[in-house]
Amino acid sequence: MSEMGSDEGENIIPFQLQFDKPIPFQIKIAEWNPEKDLLAMVTEDSKILLHRFNWQRLWTISPGKPVTCLCWRPDGKAIAVGLEDGTIALHDVENGKLLRSLKPHAVAVVCLNWEEDGQSNTDKIENFSVYEDRTSRFFPPAPRAPKMPGLVAGDSSFMDDGEDSLAELSNTSFRKFNILCSGDQDGSICFSIFGIFQIGKINIHELYVPVQHLDEPASCKIINASIHKVALSKDLCRLVVMCTGELTDCKMKPKEETFSVQDQHGLHCLAMDTSIFWKRKYELHQVAQQASNIEDLTEVIRASLSVMSKQWADAMKTFHDKFHSLSTLIVDNGLESSPQEEFLSLLGGARISPALNQFLVNSLGEVGVKRVLKSVCGTGKELQQIVLDHLQPAAEIIGFRMGELRGLSRWRARYQGIGLDEILLNEATENAGLVLVQVQRFMMVLSSVVQQFSNFFNWLVRSIKYLMQEPNDQLSSYNSELLVVFLKFLYDQDPVKDLLELTEAGDNIEIDLKTIGRVKELLQFGGFQDCDFLQRTLAKEFQHMESSFKMALQMPFTTISRKISCMKLLPLYPLQLSTTQTPTTIPMSLTFYKNELSDDTPCQSGYTDYISFQVPDETFPEIPNCIGIAKGFKQNSNNEKNGYTSLEAVLLSVPNGHSCVDLSLYKDRELVLLLNKTNTNSEGLGEACMMVVETGDLPFISISRSSSLNQWELEDLKGSIVNLEMENEKVRNIPHSAIAPLAVSASRGVACVFAERRRALVYILEEDEDEEITEDK
Questions:
Q1: What is the domain extent for residue 348?
Q2: Residue-wise pLDDT tens digits, 550-577
Q3: pTM of the prediction?
Q4: Model confidence over 637-683: pLDDT tens digits?
Q5: How far is the C-alpha of 417 from the C-alpha of 414, rounded, in Å?
Q6: What total number of domains does the chain contain?
Q7: Is 627 among the domain residues?
Q8: Structural domain includes residue 183
């Protein structure tokens, strides 16, 4: 096809230009929604924008930290955002609100890949539905975290009332099983089920990578590794990783002889065995459903305790601020008594001291008493409501879900293989029950304290009325015995605060020996194994439960992590330290295509991996300006035992006068190249073009396993380079110099090109007579 330079003759131009618009910002990351005509973009100052296909902006958010990568959930309803500090934030597609925030990495997240299982949610072997969450049968909808007084919507990370996005995120019962993979710049890869439950982590530095050396099996480590791309196959059985690093610590097997490798710092491709996700996806689905909801509910309890603690502290501050002046007046009057003794003296009918009289009549007054009464007793009622509406329901559902996990752990044939430990879950379930016991104790203590404060304030009002010789017959009565108890034990102590705040290691609640003995006697009737729970506060008990839950879930995390192994290493090309391109700027793309002749048997080569990348000119000076494509890196092959693999590769030479800006693998085994012309036009402006290459028509060459680790695989292809010709490919000229990124939507058949001088151009890559691209309402 000849090269086209204008919009004349629409019928022979391969890609239709939808629009060419100026943009007020430079874009560094762009990703199309897989289900809707929506484009998410990240600006240079790390603002995230969501635009419709017609370029209407829907929302803008600013995470407050540098954004390093984006990835859509497979159903397009949420987007994962990788941040420089190692955090992964999930945002709602409808409004951009934060749904969940995880921090699985210690350094910047540089790549994300979210893949879902291609099969339906039915266990064909056992012939039952994968998972039905039974919690809704016995409990109302899970409570949300209470809002801190004084906050307005948007001030915290909790969702506003009336929004169900967070609930939808946690309800995974009828959703296809999916895994979010994330890689960081220190060589770590993390795996999260449904993007919210962390189930595994590997570090490239710690893996021994199987390789061949002189026709003998060997293994190496990759040091100083940095992840650049990850792609999980649609059957969840394989993970392909592109990383940079240096091969070292190579050992011959079974001889365990160590040998050196020269010049092995470069770009490598790894094939990881993640078949555990497919083999145990039903079990992992159930564990993730229960555990992620428990994590949500622990946050509800944590927020409840925090709100309650602050509210009660504010109420107590109001009380102590008002009554502190009494201590000052006692000292000023030369008295040695305490405020409690002064109040007891007044209660006993003795003569009132000048200090107490001045405090009650002049400093405090009836209005002051009622103000403090409203603050303390009103706060007490608010705390009781938080317990009833948030904390207690959350604790009850946690106990039920813990019991569900404990029941699953007893099905050893299915769940022992993923690390679900019955003993640890027994302890976690008991601790969930102990939290409920502590909640009941807290409610009794709070009710008693509020009652005694109210009794104290009623007596003060009557006393002030008496001192001012005003009638007090219509006032509330008081209980003298409760008043004595309050003045002796509660006036300068705060049992509510003690229960809400974490205590020091040795600062436990004192329990008499008789009570402890009775608790131990309950063991023979099925009581709690932990007999020391009465010595802990509510906050301490919650911490105890959370710790045991994390310990129980650490076993599946560790078990799954150990079952993810490296199967193959493909050294692509060396990287010189003086190269002008850094690995983060080298165009590369990873994807999986379904095999046409596949029998749909998972983990049996149902999908072929395609790896495309630009070869830096410094790597192979004799073959400059080339694009490499490799496929079938990890395919099962009977010939592999004979020294051959199913790996095929080809080198493409970019047309003269052009340089590759970015590339993207597209559906139907096509490669989209974004090329800049190296010279300018008559007006001194740069130009670019977009080219689509049919990979199915390329002469791929089978590559045998190298007999030496010092051999780079691409060196076998130097003599068979395919020269791309502008006349022979689908090409569309762009009247601007282009810059990365190139955003291509395989599901919608569109591409967005960003040009210098802040312009965005959207092209339709293919025409469909039956369906037109329209904006989603």
A1: 283-502+537-556
A2: 999 999 999 999 999 988 888 888 887 5
A3: 0.85
A4: 444 444 445 788 889 999 988 999 999 988 777 899 999 998 766 56
A5: 6
A6: 1
A7: no
A8: no
